[in-house]
Specification:
This protein has about 600 residues and is of the alpha/beta class. It contains eight helices and 35 strands. The termini are far apart. It is globular and about 80 Å long. It binds alpha-D-glucopyranuronic acid (GCU). Alpha-D-glucopyranuronic acid binds next to loops.
Length: about 600
């Protein structure tokens, strides 16, 4: 039995009526700079049978296996006696964090279970009265956090940040931070057990020690409303939260706004946007330093201001119709052995392939919330973003606990990213098979998104139906979506020839914008077959793109493309010994960044759209 307690479920599960603020995560405003970055070498200890939590026969774990204890094993052993240990995180092997364990050493490639990590550190001394927190940017999939032998927090979900307060548990020197990470997925997790991407278990994004005043800015947001106002809010956390004067300043616009927090510690802002305000767009990604202040606390975020809306079948960016020239991306850095280690350099290398290489203005960051580095790079470079939580293929649609996890994952994503102008769409799922329970689940999720952020568009990547040469979209979820999106693989999966693909006709609702959220074909970089043009050759992939783009040109309400996928990525489902070897080869570039013929087909197509 796994001794895991899923997230404390504060809201009423499964009901559509819920208070959005029960979903508010405390993230200390993600822009807040850390006092200390705990990236680096961590020791680790495998615990495949979770003996550090539960002994055989369900008995309580034995101290000799409890990796989280604040014990110096070598010193204890030197004293002799009857006690002994079957772990020692002080003398264990090390790996570089952040980064997934599957890529760290060959023996861990397919390890799927509980891994214990340890970091010893001396803490930066907090100012008098300051509070201390640990923020984990992502731990895949469940995390259990101990500091100096004391459990200080837990989290479930592999792609969103969480914060634990350590003010009491932190000591000045010799801190022992131990994190149990369980990568196991099942019918109750999001995503479920089977995905078409690698497991990537572990502490995959940075761990930071953050210090803040006793009453601090926990969240602050500002955006441009459709009515041309700058609207936002600021949330204080701490004993002096209510009735406080707070302010925000945009020096570049000569703007200062003041407000007061209410009894719950929240203050609101609303003012006509200054005439000098430059709107954010892919062509002109204008960003402003916004300084939020509350007493001794000051935090700066870098925010772009734009509007996004739908009007009939058009997507409007700053009131003008836009076509999303994009590509889908998995969170893997370019290189032969990706560890899901995405820093600003890795993010820009991927996104410049889209911006400069493909002449794109859009990326689908599939199938889960990507690192904050990726979103900030998209803000800076000027790329619109589709953000998605991993309600992928099948989850337990009938479980209120699973719905609550999805809601919390969505809330953590929105609270982390809602100041990112690049994000235009929140996606609530990918290729989920149509059942009544699934549509109820997604409907509740769509309501959550709208309650948390009514300023962006809601979509989902849907499956299509085929009737001869006609492709139909008749998903009962459509009324909940602002933008329809579908994954279509005619010409790769199934027995369509590329001539058939060119002839396909689409029967789609015409009152909403349509996106092709996926289409793609595998190709091994360097494998040429100009005569027979077999599948898995670059030649076939290029022909497939030409045929699919020709078909797409005949769909009158099509407003965007995010073909599957920018880069070859690891997947345990792809095991052809010549062509795949654990890689999904639908990339337009190989895992080391080698462009394939189809890259230029799409680039030319998008370049032609720019004129
Ligand atoms: C699916 C799925 C992707 C998958 C792709 C493929 O549509 O959304 O995650 O990798 O198809 O089959 O390559």
């Amino acid at each position: 039995m796994r001794v895991w307690i899923t997230l404390a479920l504060a809201c009423v599960l499964g009901s559509s009526a819920f208070a959005a603020d029960t979903l508010r995560p405390s993230l200390l405003l993600t822009a807040r700079p850390p006092a200390q970055d705990l990236s680096g070498r961590w020791t680790y200890s495998k615990d495949l049978y979770r003996t550090g939590l539960t002994d055989i026969n369900g008995w309580p774990a034995k101290p000799r296996m409890e990796r989280f204890r604040d014990v110096d094993v070598a010193t204890a052993e030197a004293q002799g006696g009857v006690g002994f240990f079957e772990y020692d995180l002080d003398r264990g092997p090390t790996m570089e964090l952040p980064g997934a364990w599957n890529s760290a050493v060959p023996e861990l490639r397919y390890f799927d279970g509980l891994m214990w990590f340890q970091r010893r550190f001396d803490a930066v001394r907090p100012q008098p009265g300051q509070r201390s927190f640990l923020r984990f940017e992502a731990v895949n999939y469940r995390a259990m956090v101990f500091l100096n032998g004391k459990e200080v927090g837990r989290h479930e979900g592999g792609f969103t940040p969480f914060v634990v307060e350590v003010t009491q548990a932190l000591r000045e020197t010799g801190n022992r931070l131990v994190v149990g990470v369980d990568s196991k997925h099942d019918a109750q997790t999001i995503p479920g057990e089977i995905t078409d991407w690698d497991l990537y278990g572990g502490i995959t994004r940075p761990v930071k020690l953050i210090q803040a005043p006793a009453t601090f800015i926990d969240d602050a947001t500002l955006r441009l409303s459709d009515g041309g106002h700058l609207v936002g809010s600021l949330q204080l956390n701490g004993p002096q939260s209510a009735g406080q004067t707070v302010s925000l300043r945009i020096a570049a616009l000569g703007l200062t706004l003041r407000s007061r927090t209410d009894a719950s510690g929240e203050a609101r802002f609303d003012t006509p946007a200054p005439a000098a305000l430059k709107r954010w767009s892919p062509e002109s990604p204008a960003l402003y330093d916004v300084d939020f202040e509350a007493g001794p606390d000051r935090v700066r975020d870098r925010i772009g201001f734009r509007t996004i809306a739908v009007r009939g079948s058009e997507i409007l960016l700053n009131g003008q119709p836009v076509f999303l020239r994009g590509i889908s991306i998995h969170e893997e850095e370019i290189g032969p052995n990706p560890a899901r280690r995405i820093d600003d350099v890795a993010a820009r290398r991927l996104l410049n392939e889209v911006k400069e290489g493909l002449h794109g203005n859009y990326v689908r960051l599939s199938h889960y919330p990507h690192s904050e580095a990726m979103l900030r790079a998209a803000d800076e470079l000027g790329l619109l973003v589709w953000s998605e939580i991993p309600v992928y293929w099948t989850v337990d649609w009938d479980s209120p606990a699973v719905l609550d996890k999805a809601r919390r994952m969505q809330a953590e994503t929105i609270y982390r990213d809602r100041n990112r102008a690049a994000i235009a769409l929140w996606s609530i799922g990918n290729e989920t098979p149509v059942t009544e329970a699934r549509t109820r689940f997604h409907t509740a999720l769509a309501q959550t998104v709208r309650a948390l952020d009514a300023s962006r568009l809601v979509s989902a990547a849907l499956l299509v139906e085929r009737n001869g040469d006609t492709v139909r979209i008749a998903d009962p979820l459509l009324p909940q979506l602002d933008v329809i999106a579908v994954n279509t693989y005619a010409g790769w999966y199934g027995d369509d020839t590329l001539d058939t693909v060119r002839r396909l006709r689409w029967d789609v609702p015409v009152d909403k914008p349509l996106l092709f959220s996926e289409f793609g074909a595998d190709a091994v970089a360097g494998l040429r077959d100009p005569t027979v043009r077999r599948k898995f050759s670059e030649d076939y992939q290029a022909d497939y793109y030409r045929a699919t783009l020709a078909m797409a040109a005949n769909v009158p309400t099509l407003r965007g493309l995010s073909p599957w996928v920018l880069k070859d990525f690891r997947s345990p489902r792809r095991e052809h010994p010549v062509y795949q070897n654990g890689w999904n080869r639908k990339g337009l570039i190989s895992e080391t960044g080698q462009r394939k013929l189809a890259f230029d087909v799409l680039a030319e197509h998008y370049r032609g759209m720019q004129r």
